[in-house]
Amino acid sequence: MNYSSLILINRLSPLLGQITLTDGTSRALGIIMLIGFVFGTICVIGGGFAIRRGDTDAGKLSIMGGLIIAGAPAIVRALFAAFGLSNTTVDITAF
User: Fold this and answer.
1) Total structural domains in the chain?
2) Predicted structure pTM score
3) Domain annotation covers residue 13
4) Does residue 48 belong to any structural domain of this protein?
5) ∠ at Cα 13 (10, 16), nearest 5°?
6) What is the reported pLDDT for 78?
7) Cα separation of 38 and 35, whole Å?
8) What's the chain look like in SS3?
9) pLDDT digits (tens, 9 = 90+) for 44-89
């Protein structure tokens, strides 16, 4: 390492200390939850169209799967609260 890189590291270290891992993880998981909600909604709509076409078995499975996918964050939060782990990293009320 040369002298200029050490100076750069010393100047950036206070900035890097301000970034927390839980904040980044919370944001990443929030984006994943939003994508899952959209995908679950699309599955429910697709299941409705399948029932309309006459394929009731596939439609019911698609609707149930879509509800589980879209409601997964609320289900997991309820399970965490039931087991006493309510201090989770991701807060779904912000989304």
Assistant:
1) 1
2) 0.62
3) no
4) yes
5) 160
6) 81
7) 5
8) CCHHHHHHHHHHHHHHHHCCHHHHHHHHHHHHHHHHHHHHHHHHHHHHHHHHHCCHHHHHHHHHHHHHHHCHHHHHHHHHHHCCCCCCCCCHHHC
9) 999 999 999 999 999 999 999 999 998 888 888 788 778 877 665 5
